[in-house]
Amino acid sequence: MAVPTAMKRNIALVGHGGCGKTTLAEAMLFAAGVITRMGAIEDGNTVSDYNPEEIRRRYSIYSSILPFDHNGHRITLIDCPGYLDFIGETLAALNAVDAAVLVVSGVAGVEPQTRVNWQYLEKLKLPRMVFVSGLDKENSSFDNVVGALRHAFGKSLTPLIIPIGQQSQLKGVINVLTRRAFIKDGDKFSEQDVPAEMQDKVEAARTALVESIVELDEKLFERYLADEPITDAELAGALQAGTQRGDICPIIGGSSKQLVGVQTLFDMIETALPQPNFRGKISGKKPNGGDDSRALAEDAPFCARVFKISTEGQLGDLFWMRVYSGTLHSGDTPYNPRANESEKVTNLLVMRGKVREDVPQASAGDIVATVKIKTSKLGDTLCAKEHQIILPAIEYPSAVAYEAVEVDDKNDLEKTMSSLNQYSGMDRTLRVMQNEETKEQVIYGMGQLHLDVAAAYVKGKVGVQLQWKRPRVPYRETITTTAEAQGKYKKQTGGRGKYGDVHLRLEPKERGTGFEFVDAVVGGVVPSRFIPAVEKGVIETMEAGPLSGSRVIDMRVTLFYGSSHSVDSDELSFKVAASMGFKYAFEKCGPILLEPIYSVVIYTPDNFLGDIMADVNTRRGRVGGIDQEGDLKVVNAQIPLGELYQYINSLRSMTQGQGYYEMTFSHYEQVPSNVQADIVKKYQATRKEED
Q: Model confidence at 604, in pLDDT bands (50, 70, 90)?
């Protein structure tokens, strides 16, 4: 892998599902001579989508790393999934590359995941360009897509090519900056002068392009205004610098299946998109928390990050890392500062789909894999022990879909959860947890498709078919008034009996102030040795309140009177008496249910806004405001968690697949009385069935 850092390019292919990313990756591999024939998604034989589940479903689920050489450059493509359910794979890849190619369908144009990817590219400040794919298809239009892109994301997006022919008559593309045409002739392409009939159109497009480029460079702009000549090389240099700063985003296009535009894409990747060290350094933290950084150079101390973990058959778990600085050799022992342990790297691999190659070393800018490391997890930093640094964590969005896990045979539950936890270790947008209140095993993800793929993983791994059920909502119970009650436990069984007697007062406290127990006993009517048992009995009862079996919060419980028996009283008796007294008093205190309220941010095209607003109202939600982001409406609302179950499915249905949302916990709020009555009724019915 002895390729100079300046000749390396790490590029993510991102876009909406079905836009043509995987086909474009296949075309690039073919054009570079890496494969002898192009595979097809429909045939299940592409280099990228080699996982059995991807072949079965006919779309990308996992990111696929595709390294190859072209024109002296080492290009590493990462073909990313196109569906929002698998955004975790995409985000991890975007944190490992230096630039991205946003692939947009020449027929569909700007789609939901196009917008999502653009937002993440903006957030990560990644240089990018756009490839408009499928220009040989019916109803495709390069000009329409360019217009939609500029409307959605701004005027920094600038077309660099003009197609020669349209749809089924597509023959090639013209680079308007160089005024050179690349025209298909049989199975090959030839570089030619601009056809005479297109010269006027090319010159008009070039003038617009040149104006966009010179605005990026003050000196060039002054020369342009003074009508001084500017060379193509100067324009190309300004375009490269502007692209790397994110001030301009070139748009090119073509047909992957016909290989039209692929050579132009190679040219742009190699001349306009950045090399791995273009930022100079990467920032991080020292193990003690202080700021640190590392120069992106081969002669700097070693530093890399694990950005992907996959399971590859007999190889086992494969750990993919992006090397930012220094050099790593097979046999080295890099240090993991999070785990406070060194890792033994027995071998280094470069993989392209199922094809793998052992390499002796990896240096700054390389993306490689290794196996059989013990302590490292997704997102961990590996570095030289003498020069420790921890790189920033990869940020993932919160889950929007959730299901409780059920299996037919309870004996399968342990291995099922173990398999799910293994999957969540490879995908941080999938979380698995046991709800301590409801005792349910709940899996959280980015959509129903995401959860179904996780279930398919479990079935393939341990042979267990998962079933989903609606998780219980973790309500809270509390009181609104003060009341007192006696709890008396008396039991005589012929020998030593049981006796405990307490008088409790329950008072509401301000929301969020928690539980308080007060010992107000006078005269020792309740012996001091039994008072901790009274408090324990109250606390344990509060874990499952009478209304819904949910945790009771925010109240003061005062023990103010009681009685005992010299022989029959013990800790258990007072614990039971306390539980009884608490329940009696609780019923008199105007008990209410509190439900978790989530802040929800909904993104939708304008024409679906009315449906979204009406639906939020039916879910007992409150709209706090409506903003504009590009060509999308952004609805800020607060909605009860109980009304958000499978909301992602409803939202996508209402918006023809174009809407998406984010949700975060906000606070607890009183449940309306009619809703509370239904919840309590269902809970009581469940209790009777269990009894």
A: very high
Q: Rounded to the nearest 5°, which phi and psi values hold at 152?
A: -80, -40
* Residue ranges per structural domain of the chain: 5-271, 281-383, 401-469, 476-590, 593-675
Q: How far apart are CA 446 and CA 672, in angstroms?
A: 29
CATH of span 476-590: 3.30.230.10
Q: CA 606, CA 400: separation in Å to the nearest integer? A: 22
Residue whose token pair is 């270790």? 425
Q: Which residues neighbour 657 within 8 Å (Cβ) at sequence distance 6 or greater?
A: 112
Residue ranges of the alpha helices (H) in 272-374?
A: none
Q: How many CA atoms lie within 13 A of 257 on its CB side?
A: 11
d(CA 677, CA 675): 5
The alpha carbon of 299 is separated from its chain's Cα centroid by a whole number of angstroms, namely: 34
For residue 428, is pLDDT > 70? yes
Torsion angle, alpha carbons of 419, 420, 426, 432, to 10: -150
Alpha-carbon distances of 11 from 80, 278, 346, 479, 531, rounded to whole Å:
10, 14, 27, 58, 67
The type of residue at 311 is T
Residue type, 612: I
Element (H, E) at 182: strand 180-185
Rounded CA-CA distance 528/524 in Å is 7
Query: Residue with structure tokens 């490992």?
Result: 96
Domain 593-675 has CATH 3.30.70.270: no
**pTM for the structure as a whole:** 0.87
DSSP label at residue 605: E
Cβ-contact 66, 77 below 8 angstroms: yes
- E strand map for 551-659: 551-552, 555-563, 592-605, 622-629, 632-640
- Average pLDDT over all residues of the chain: 93
565: which 2 tokens? 């028996």
For the chain, what is the largest distance between any 2 Cα atoms, rounded to a whole number of angstroms?
Answer: 113
pLDDT at 1 over 60: no
Which whole number is the average pLDDT over 320-340?
Answer: 95
Do the domains at 5-271 and 281-383 have one common CATH topology? no
Name the residue among 630, 663, 650 with its Cα closest to residue 114.
630
How large is the average pLDDT for residues 520-544? 95
What is d(CA 404, CA 443) in angstroms, rounded to the nearest whole number? 6
For strands 555-563 and 515-519, give the pairing. parallel
Give me the helices (H) in 437-488, please: 448-462
Name the superfamily (CATH) of residues 401-469. Answer: Elongation Factor G (Translational Gtpase), domain 3 (3.30.70.870)
Q: How many residues does the chain have?
A: 691
- Return the SS3 of 373: coil
* Mean per-residue pLDDT, 15-41: 94
Name residue 604's beta-bridge partners: 633
Q: Measure CA of the first residue to CA of the last residue in the chain; give whole Å.
A: 68
Mean pLDDT throughout 8-30? 96
The two structure tokens encoding residue 138: 């019916």
Classify residue 622 by burial, with Cβ atoms within 10 Å: 0-12, 13-18, 19+.
Answer: exposed
Q: Are 683 and 547 in contact (CB under 8 A)?
A: yes
Residue 687 has pLDDT above 80, yes or no: no
CATH of domain 281-383: 2.40.30.10
Provide the Cα torsion 268, 273, 275, 281; round to 10°.
170
Q: For residues 155-164, give the mean pLDDT.
A: 95
Closest CA to 477 of 544, 557, 530: 544
Q: Identify which of 312, 318, 354, 259 has the alpha carbon closest to the alpha carbon of residue 44.
A: 354
Closest CA to 256 of 77, 125, 10, 62: 77
Output the pLDDT for position 689.
64
CATH class assigned to 5-271: alpha beta
Which residues fall within 8 angstroms of residue 302, CB to CB, at 6 or more apart?
323, 325, 326, 327, 328, 332, 334, 382, 383, 384, 387
